Amino acid sequence: MSPQKQAEEAMVSTFEQAEPNDREEEENGKEHSGFSFRSFLWHGGSVYDAWFSCASNQVAQVLLTLPYSFSQLGMLSGIILQVFYGILGSWTAYLISILYVEYRSRKEKENVSFKNHVIQWFEVLDGLLGPYWKAAGLAFNCTFLLFGSVIQLIACASNIYYINDNLDKRTWTYIFGACCATTVFIPSFHNYRIWSFLGLGMTTYTAWYLTIAAFVHGQGEGVKHSGPTELVLYFTGATNILYTFGGHAVTVEIMHAMWKPQKFKYIYLLATLYVFTLTIPSAVAVYWAFGDQLLTHSNAFALLPRSGWRDAGVILMLIHQFITFGFACTPLYFVWEKVIGMHDTKSICLRALARLPVVIPIWFLAIIFPFFGPINSAVGALLVSFTVYIIPSLAHMLTFRSASARQNAAEKLPFFMPSWTAVYVVNAFIVVWVLVVGFGFGGWASMTNFIKQVDTFGLFAKCYQCPPRAPAPPRPAPAHH
């Protein structure tokens, strides 16, 4: 039997031991009814669950900001960069999956048990490369997921305002912060099965609503498509797209929730191909219809006329942002549980109570920086560039730098890569490109734009990019008798 096959079988065996409670409940459900409804909704670990999780998590509120990015980039650059960063993101997600399998197979040879323990990205880096890499992975990953959660809260407030403007966006942020805090009761990515399925359906509806509504609306008189006009705007838009396809900061946790994690390898690519069918048509259609107006309207809902279809899209996106908030926050919950020694606690209520302090800084940051759109680019340039592009590429190169490591790798080269040299060339290109274009130019542009928003609207802005309210009509003078 080949070493790769042995590693795969060992991983499956250990994983089944790591989730005994789930298995027992599932078997009990089958014994009593032949079909466990609870298992169907609650216990997800198949390849399909992982695909739904990846696709659902990859495109959330960013769907509404991509037309804004197209107005900064121009039509052609917008399409090309979506495809380019989609491919780069799929490759680095593949690298993360390889490193997870390598780490897990090495630990299993040492008889390490992962019962009641969720493996995370920083632990993979620690096991393969040492404590300094663990520190870098922990810092970048946690900060990215923190701000990823912040962005979901900001998006909730931005979207609901287009249905009900009786409250300002800051007040809506308070309300949705309390709603999203309920994600502390969802134990792990196993339990997102039904949510991932529904979430992807919701973004699919919204994407095609944007596409059809934009074409039905048509181009208004005098619509201009002048982008790209400034380097700052160009690289700001580019880093928002880099952020769009950098949603695999939770790859390791999704893999660990699978019954057979070694089957994850190409799931992210397949998820990205589906996401292209949502992001490209909607961004193209909305930019075609509204052109340069999008430069001052970072949320695509802002320009589309009010209708039942639009309101449905807003409500569905709100629900999906709640789901995505959970996706981004769950790894942070795990880290916090490990810090305070609660990670192996079986009581859902005790774990939920222990997780609540994680939500408070997210709530606070969403109120300080309510800049829907520009904050995506800043997070993309400063955090996503390292978390899901540079660090995985460097980690893969260093893990397999020796001939013995390459020869004994748990996973062999993919069929489309002829040699290790080709893998190293691709990885080196990603590191240099993202470091120079994503972090360098993108960081400069996105921070310049972000500071401009702070100067224009101020911190703790009460209602970011809200249209001015019409003055109340004067009261009629009282009739004289």
UniProtKB/TrEMBL annotation:
Topology of the protein relative to the lipid bilayer: Multi-pass membrane protein
GO BP of this protein: amino acid transport; auxin-activated signaling pathway
Ranges of residues in domain Amino acid transporter transmembrane: 43-436
Presence of the UniProt keyword Transmembrane in the record: yes
InterPro entries per the UniProt record, alphabetical: AA_transpt_TM
Annotated stretches, region: Disordered: 1-31
GO molecular function list: symporter activity
Main location: membrane
Positions of transmembrane segments: 79-101, 138-160, 172-190, 197-219, 231-254, 266-290, 314-336, 348-372, 378-400, 421-444
Keywords, sorted A to Z: Amino-acid transport, Auxin signaling pathway, Membrane, Symport, Transmembrane, Transmembrane helix, Transport
GO cellular component, one term: endomembrane system
A Pfam family matched in the record: Aa_trans
Subcellular compartments: Endomembrane system
PANTHER family: OS05G0424000 PROTEIN-RELATED
Family statement drawn from the similarity comment of this UniProt entry: Belongs to the amino acid/polyamine transporter 2 family. Amino acid/auxin permease (AAAP) (TC 2.A.18.1) subfamily.
Protein name per the record: Amino acid transporter
Gene that produces this protein: PanLAX1
